[in-house]
Design brief:
The complex is a heterodimer of chains A (295) and B (288). Chain A is an alpha/beta fold and 295 residues long. Chain A is built from eleven helices and eleven strands. Chain A has two domains: 208 residues, Rossmann fold (3-Layer(aba) Sandwich), CATH 3.40.50; 57 residues, Alpha-Beta Plaits (2-Layer Sandwich), CATH 3.30.70. In chain A, the strands form two sheets. In chain A, strands 3-6-7-2-8-1-9-10-11 form a nine-stranded mixed sheet, with helices on both faces. In chain A, strand 9, helix 7 and strand 10 form a beta-alpha-beta unit. In chain A, helix 1 packs across helix 11 and helix 5 runs parallel beside helix 6. Chain B has two domains: 223 residues, 3-Layer(aba) Sandwich (Rossmann fold); 46 residues, Alpha-Beta Plaits, CATH 3.30.70. Chain B contains eleven helices and eleven strands. In chain B, helix 1 crosses helix 11 and helix 5 runs parallel beside helix 6. Classes of the chains: A alpha/beta (295), B alpha/beta (288). The interface between A and B is large, with 64 and 59 residues.
Chain lengths: 295, 288
């Protein structure tokens, strides 16, 4: 079993459209949406929900007014400025529990947060594990770890060849949580100065965690000079450019129809994405070892 | 007045809107642009600011004095983030897991724990052609952007107009960035992805009690469901930017919309005037 995660640094470069197409192209796989803040893959795969699970993570402090003597020690010691006028602001509270331990009248208790939900769904392309972080909740990294863990167990059980993950934008906690231990990161970039800047940083994260990377330049014909710049940058870094995909409105039209783009058009976009999946499966076939189901 | 520019979905045009809004206002307002997308900051590519101040962002992490430590394990018990492990005769600290709450050092019975700064990023401040500028950069490999975001926000000049560019998503970095804004502009695109993530972003700003309005970018590309949603939810659509390959090309070269196509300046000034009206209306209604 091999795991590929699709990242980009910059948002909106086309991760989900590409993963949706991989869903249609790859044979035996489990799909994962690791963008737990703003999950969109289900809009392309249109799955039927099989299971819904609560995700409890982290804590929030609560002050019992009747026991509070308003001594102010908690306000003074809270590093997150989460207590004002002897009330806890649940959005600022990071759940460290320091206040509950130092309160002289034991007026503060910590309560578990329902931080979101995760789901197992069935699509016509195979099972999808996805999640929704609760509004204004923390711990997106832990929720990502949960969906990946579930996907691994399912892939073991079903003896699937691939786990294909749609990753979040950025380089922080949920990205690190999506990336660690994967066999390959596909970095989808676009030929804009922002795209290049963000590619360099996300590539740094892949290096930091020792995950090999391939690059796909999406919408390369928006600025061919920049596309060439990305190619020469990647060559210099020893990173392979898997494919270049041209800009095509059909990608958006496919999203509106709720279809993977490779099922919507037979145009160049679909030909290139098909080549991309071929490159990735070849790369994974060459790479050593599978994914440890118990990470 | 603080105006934050957010979106659930990435790549909808936050940076385009934030930079053009700041540049359009600079002749008539004292304006500052804060890039709080500290994971992937891009505003500097467009504004090319002169950086005058650069400061490290550190979070306090425990340092154990093993001469004083008797390995009682109190620190392990009080750490909510599992950042400390105690073995017989040895203590291990995992600085990457530490949130810097300070509980371990305060509660250590032997006073064996002090705190040292661990650098997780940098904040840079400067200016660009009449616009005040600050951004943060999270170090590659670091997981926690919020302490860097807090430091960028400390740079806000509350006497003028502060525009905050925010990372995509709806989780802690977004919440930290939007918090305390007077208004939040949500930039979206008219596709099912744009709509799905807009709805999540609207729920987030409602939770934070920050009023919001929508900018629809790449109009004409998808369907009309974003407009229908805004109408039904009574969320004002304040600006519409069409799908235009010329705009995409300018963006790709790091040129702001108002510099590349000057006719847009009036639209951004109009956008700001609408925001100010909405903020004034709201503060009047809150007083009542």
């Amino acid at each position: 079993m091999k795991e590929v995660v699709v990242l980009s640094g910059k948002g909106g470069t086309g991760k989900t459209s590409i993963v949706g197409s991989f869903a249609a192209l790859a044979k035996s796989k489990v799909l994962v949406d690791c963008d737990v803040d703003a999950a969109d893959l289900h809009l392309l795969l249109q799955p039927a929900r099989r299971e819904r699970h609560e995700f409890w993570s982290g804590q929030t402090a609560f002050i019992a007014e009747d026991r509070c003597t308003q001594c102010g020690l908690c306000q003074e010691l809270c590093r997150f400025k989460a207590i004002k006028d002897f009330r806890v602001d649940p959005i600022s509270c990071e759940g460290c529990g320091f206040c509950s331990r130092i309160c002289p009248t034991e007026a503060i208790t910590m309560k578990e947060n329902l931080a979101g939900h995760w789901f197992i769904s069935d699509s016509r392309y195979g099972p999808l594990v996805h999640a929704q972080l609760g509004v204004a909740q923390e711990n997106s990294g832990k929720l990502v770890a949960t969906v990946r863990q579930q996907a691994r167990q399912m892939a073991e059980k079903e003896v699937a060849d691939y786990i294909i993950s749609d990753g979040p934008p950025g380089i922080g906690c949920p990205v690190i949580s999506s990336l660690t231990g994967a066999n390959l990161a596909l970095l989808v970039t676009e030929p804009t100065l922002s795209g290049i800047h963000d590619l360099e940083r996300v590539l740094g994260v892949c290096r930091h965690f020792g995950v090999p990377a391939l690059v796909c330049i999406n919408k390369y014909d928006i600025n061919e000079d920049n596309a060439r710049h990305i190619e020469s940058y990647c060559r210099g870094q020893g990173i392979e450019i898997a494919v270049k995909v041209p800009f095509d409105n059909a990608v958006t039209e496919a999203i509106v129809r709720g279809l993977p783009v490779v099922e919507y058009t037979e145009g160049v976009v679909s030909i290139e994405i098909t080549k991309l999946w071929q490159n990735i499966s070849d790369f994974l076939a060459r790479s050593q070892g599978g994914t440890d189901a118990n990470i | 007045m603080i105006i934050s520019v957010a979106s659930g979905k990435g790549g909808t045009g936050k940076t385009l809107v934030a930079t053009s809004l700041a540049l359009s206002l600079k002749d008539r307002e004292q304006v500052q642009l804060l890039d709080c997308d500290v994971e992937e900051p891009n505003d500097h590519i467009f504004l090319k600011p002169v950086i005058t101040i650069s400061e490290a962002v550190c979070i306090p992490v425990p340092e154990i004095d093993e001469k004083k430590c008797n390995y009682c394990g109190k620190c392990v018990e009080v750490c909510a983030y599992h950042a400390i492990a105690v073995f017989p005769g040895h203590v291990l600290v995992f600085p990457q897991l530490c949130h810097g709450c300070g509980a371990c050092s305060y509660l250590c019975p032997e006073k064996a724990i002090s705190e040292v700064g661990r650098k997780i990023g940098v904040v840079e401040c400067g200016h660009s052609d009449g616009v005040g500028f600050a951004h943060g950069k999270l170090n590659v490999g670091e997981a926690m952007p919020t302490p860097v975001i807090r430091r960028v926000k400390k740079r806000a000049n509350h006497d003028g107009i502060v525009i905050i560019d925010i990372s995509p998503g709806t989780s802690c970095p977004v919440v930290e960035s939007i918090k305390d804004s007077d208004f939040c502009l949500l930039v979206t695109e008219p596709t099912p992805f744009g709509l799905n993530d807009l709805i999540l972003a609207v729920e987030t700003v409602k939770e934070l009690k920050v009023p919001c309005g929508v900018v629809i970018n790449r109009a004409g590309v998808g369907d009309r469901k974003v407009e229908e949603y805004c109408l039904n939810e009574n969320i004002p659509v304040l600006l519409t930017i069409p799908l235009d390959t010329e705009i995409a090309r300018l963006y790709s070269r790091g040129i702001t919309l108002v510099e590349g196509m000057r006719q847009w300046k009036e639209s951004f000034i109009g956008l700001f005037d609408r925001i100010r009206e909405l903020v004034d209306e709201r503060s009047r209604s809150l007083k009542r």
